[in-house]
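Handout, page 2. Input:
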Amino acid sequence: MDSDGEKLQHIGFLGIFKESFKIISSWKKIFTQITLLFILPLSIIFLVKVQVSDQMEQRIDWERLDYGRCGDNRLNDILTYQRLVYWLINIAYLVLLLVLSLLSTSAVVYTVACNYTGKPITFKKIMSVVPKVWKRVSLTFIWSFLIHLAYGLCMLGTFFMGVVLIGFSPFGLAIWIILLIVFLVGFVYLNIVWQLASVVSVLEEENYGIKAMVKSINLIEGKRRVTSFIFLLLVLFYGGIMIVYQIFLPDGWNLAFQLVVGIPCLVLLTFLFLFSLVIQTVIYFVCKSYHGESIDRLALANHLEAYFQPEPQREATRDVQMEQGRVATTDGPLDQVYV
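Output:
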């Protein structure tokens, strides 16, 4: 195993944060360009949506109150129209959020991987790779969504059966608390698996979709405590930013005060999104090193470079790498093979 792999193998909670900060500071220009193109719009859309949703919900309540008080027969038509607009805005928001999130993930993961190969990289080169990587990450997201959906339906079924069987007695409330804790733990674990699977989808040729989810589960073993603490800490930071934003930006404040509060929230949220993507990529390399999987710079560089090749050449490159893997298994140590 190379020195980078040995170093990553032994770093813990604080080491992962330190490594992530070091990568961002080393590639300031490229990460700034990625942030301005993908992550900043993502943060703006996220914060604007909060304000728009609050205002539309208030408007629906006001119109229900005003027209209801006057006995106006147009109330149902007006409320139907308002709800339609509300849901269309939410659908458009979710689509934009998903697209920008997947593009950001693809660009940041690829950039961090290039950091470990030591190869020069430009923003133009990253942008030419992102569309190809994005397809793999999208497929992994679809599988993750289906797994989250199945998990949510199972929990709803469990809660429904609990209502029928145990009700809300003191004993039943204790059972509800236990079920809620189990649900939250499972939800956190699924999100960690999905985030790591997104990295796997970019960096491993054969692993995307459900295969990336399975590989992610295997990688997390032995590092679940560290990854869980990091995930929860990032969620707490996110929650703190959103609480400040929603408390101090009501409609009653003037524009100057809203800017004083809103701009710092936007900057912090943007950096948090960037840092979260970098840190989940670092966790991938830490987990690989922990399991004794060497970070072979040459093989990783060849894999990343293959994204620039036409599909027939990529297939040929993959065959060569697989052949090298079989030779290494027979004649050399297995842990020097990346793919």
